C-alpha cells in the first residue's frame, strides 16, 4: 500500500502446511491490520504495518463474507520531512548492493575498452594498410586483386530500399534517445525521489510530446537527403511508428485490467486527455519539426559518385549473413548491461528501490558507446566482403541488443519473479515488448549514425575515380 507516497509492505495472509502435502494446506486471510505512523507537526514521516493475528479460513473455494478492520497509532518524531526518504535510500546503498553495481560498471568498462582497442586496431593498422594499398598509382595497383571496400565505392552510398520507413526509424530512434537523456538529467538532479508515483510517467509523457519535433526534424531531413517526395506520409509514419504499437498494447492491457476490476485500469477521461495531447500538441510539433528539417537540410554529399546500376554482391559465408551478425552485434553490448538489468526489472516489477541514477547513466552511456563501436566494426567487415547493402544492416545490428533484452524478459519472468496469471503475464510482456521495441529503434539509430560517420571518413580518405 501507499500512504502519502510512502510505501508499506505486509502479508495479506498466511499458509499453514502441517503435513507437507499440498492437499493439507490451509489458507488464512488477515482481517485486521494495525498501522503505526510517525509524524512531525503536519507531515507524515514514516509508516509501518502489522497484523494482530485475526484471520479467516478461505481454503474452501466458496464465497465468504469478510469484515476487515484496521487501527492506527500516531507517534510524534523529531525526524524532518526532508529526511523521510532516507530509510528507503539506504536500502540501495547497502555495501553489498553498491559493490555489485560497481562490479557491473567495471565489467562494462572492460567490455568497452576491449571494443575500443579492437576498433583502434582496425582504424590504425588495417585501414592504414588499405589506404596505402588503394592510394598507390595505377601501375602498382595492378599488382593487387580488385577486391575490398574501395571497389564498391560506386554503390556504398546508394540509398536503401523503403526510404520512408528507414527515415521514420531514424526519427523515432533520435527522439527516444533524446527522451532518455532528458529523463536521466531529471533523475540525477533529484526529481524522481523514491516512490514519487506518477512523476516518472508524467515526465515520460510530457518529454515525449515535447521531443516529437526532434523526430520530425530528423526524419524529414534524412528523407529529403534521400530524394524522398512523399514527406507528409513519411512524417505520419514517423509519428505512428512507436506510438501506434504502444497505444494498441495499452488499449488491450487496459481492457484486461477493466475485466479483472483492477485499479491498474486508467479511466476513460485520462485516456481521452492523452489522445487530445497527442493530436493537439504532438502532431503539430512533429510537422513543424518536419517542415524545419525539410527546408534547412542540404543535399546528401556523398564522397563518391553512385553508379547507375548496382554492383553484384558476391556469395557470402553464412556467418556474414544478417541473422548471425545481429546475434554477435547484440550480445556484446548486452553483456555490458545485463547485471544492471536485474535491479531495473526488480524496481519496475518488484518491490525493490532503485535510486543510484548516476551509475545507471554511466551504464547507459557504456551501452551507447559499445553499440556504436560494435556496429562500426561489423559494417567494416561487411564492406570488406564487398557487400554494399549496409544501411539496413547497421540498423539491425545496432538494435539487436533490444532483442537480447526481450530474451532476458523471459528469464526474469520465469526464473526471478513470482508473477503468474493472465493479467500479470500480459502486463509484463505487453509493456516490456514496447520497451524493447523502443530500445531497438534507439540503438539501431545510434548504430547507423556511427556507421555513417565511419563510412564517410573511409571513403573521403581515398581517391574514388
Automatic annotation (TrEMBL):
Membrane topology: Multi-pass membrane protein
Family annotation (PANTHER family): TRANSMEMBRANE 9 SUPERFAMILY MEMBER, TRANSMEMBRANE 9 SUPERFAMILY PROTEIN
One Pfam entry name: EMP70
Principal cellular location given in the protein's record: membrane
GO biological process, one term: protein localization to membrane
Localization per record: Endosome membrane; Golgi apparatus membrane
Family of the protein in this entry: Belongs to the nonaspanin (TM9SF) (TC 9.A.2) family.
Domain of life (superkingdom): Eukaryota
GO cellular component assignments: endosome membrane; Golgi membrane
Keywords tagged on the record: Endosome, Membrane, Signal, Transmembrane, Transmembrane helix
The protein's name in its UniProt record: Transmembrane 9 superfamily member
Amino acid at each position: 500500500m501507499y500512504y502519502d507516497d510512502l510505501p508499506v509492505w505486509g502479508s495479506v495472509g498466511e499458509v499453514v502446511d502441517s503435513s507437507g502435502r499440498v492437499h493439507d494446506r490451509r489458507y488464512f486471510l488477515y482481517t485486521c491490520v494495525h498501522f503505526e505512523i510517525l509524524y512531525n507537526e503536519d507531515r507524515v514521516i514514516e509508516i509501518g504495518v502489522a497484523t494482530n493475528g485475526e484471520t479467516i479460513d478461505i481454503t474452501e473455494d466458496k464465497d465468504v463474507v469478510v469484515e476487515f478492520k484496521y487501527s492506527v497509532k500516531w507517534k510524534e518524531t523529531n525526524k524532518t520531512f526532508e529526511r523521510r526518504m532516507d530509510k528507503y535510500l539506504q536500502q540501495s546503498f547497502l555495501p553489498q548492493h553498491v559493490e555489485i553495481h560497481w562490479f557491473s560498471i567495471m565489467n562494462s568498462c572492460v567490455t568497452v575498452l576491449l571494443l575500443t582497442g579492437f576498433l583502434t586496431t582496425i582504424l590504425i593498422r588495417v585501414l592504414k594498410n588499405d589506404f596505402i594499398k588503394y592510394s598507390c598509382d595505377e601501375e602498382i595497383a595492378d599488382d593487387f586483386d580488385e577486391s575490398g571496400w574501395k571497389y564498391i565505392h560506386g554503390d556504398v552510398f546508394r540509398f536503401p530500399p523503403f526510404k520512408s520507413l528507414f527515415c521514420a526509424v531514424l526519427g523515432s530512434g533520435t527522439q527516444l534517445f533524446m527522451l532518455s537523456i532528458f529523463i536521466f538529467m531529471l533523475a540525477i538532479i533529484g526529481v524522481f525521489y523514491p516512490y514519487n508515483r506518477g512523476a516518472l510517467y508524467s515526465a515520460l509523457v510530457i518529454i515525449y510530446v515535447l521531443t516529437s519535433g526532434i523526430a520530425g526534424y530528423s526524419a524529414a531531413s534524412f528523407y529529403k537527403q534521400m530524394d524522398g517526395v512523399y514527406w507528409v506520409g513519411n512524417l505520419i509514419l514517423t509519428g505512428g511508428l512507436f506510438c501506434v504499437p504502444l497505444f494498441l498494447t495499452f488499449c488491450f492491457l487496459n481492457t484486461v485490467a477493466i475485466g479483472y476490476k483492477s485499479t491498474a485500469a486508467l479511466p476513460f477521461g485520462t485516456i481521452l486527455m492523452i489522445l487530445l495531447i497527442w493530436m493537439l500538441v504532438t502532431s503539430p510539433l512533429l510537422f513543424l519539426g518536419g517542415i524545419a528539417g525539410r527546408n534547412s537540410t542540404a543535399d546528401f554529399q556523398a564522397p563518391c559518385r553512385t553508379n547507375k546500376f548496382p554492383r553484384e554482391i558476391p556469395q557470402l559465408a553464412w556467418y556474414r549473413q544478417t541473422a548471425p551478425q545481429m546475434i554477435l552485434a547484440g550480445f556484446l553490448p548486452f553483456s555490458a548491461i545485463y547485471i544492471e538489468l536485474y535491479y531495473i526489472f526488480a524496481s519496475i516489477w518488484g518491490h525493490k528501490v532503485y535510486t543510484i541514477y548516476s551509475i545507471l547513466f554511466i551504464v547507459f552511456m557504456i551501452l551507447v558507446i559499445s553499440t556504436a563501436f560494435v556496429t562500426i566494426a561489423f559494417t567494416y567487415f561487411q564492406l570488406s566482403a564487398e557487400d554494399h547493402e549496409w544501411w539496413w544492416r547497421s540498423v539491425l545490428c545496432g538494435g539487436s541488443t533490444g532483442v537480447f533484452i526481450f530474451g532476458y524478459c523471459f528469464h526474469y519472468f520465469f526464473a526471478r519473479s513470482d508473477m503468474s496469471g493472465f493479467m500479470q503475464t500480459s502486463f509484463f510482456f505487453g509493456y516490456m515488448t514496447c520497451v524493447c521495441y523502443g530500445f531497438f529503434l534507439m540503438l539501431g539509430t545510434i548504430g547507423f549514425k556511427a556507421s555513417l560517420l565511419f563510412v564517410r571518413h573511409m571513403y573521403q580518405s581515398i581517391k574514388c575515380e
